[in-house]
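Q: Hi! Curious about what YvaD family protein looks like structurally. Here's the sequence.
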Amino acid sequence: MRWMRVFFWITDVGFILYWAVTALELIPPQYLYSDYSNPILVAWNWSFMPLDLLISFTGLYSMLLQKRGREAWRMWALISLVLTFCSGLQAISYWAIRLEFDLAWWIPNVYLLLYPLCFIPLLLRRQAVR
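A: Let's find out. The predicted structure is below.
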């Protein structure tokens, strides 16, 4: 589970940083997704913010609980992983429907889609053994 902590730190802190940078409009225009100025796409992007911050909260909280030796960390970690998978799936589905394949947006979202699949079975297996 040590590797899961590494992925949680990268993902959870990454989401917090992404939303801070987005709110402050620090991303150069050439790195923004297509039609970024379209109000509908801006709303679509911001619609992910509550989900992404919930992912960060649940992931960081699970690590705090684990550090304190509380078994509830597994449930919070599982919630975080499932939400992370959903966030990646939603974004990839959107870009696939639009037939837009910009690696700058696909790579982070494929990461969000795939990395949870490595740890969800481990958490479920360990829970079933208990």
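A: A fun detail: Residues 2-15+45-129 form one domain.
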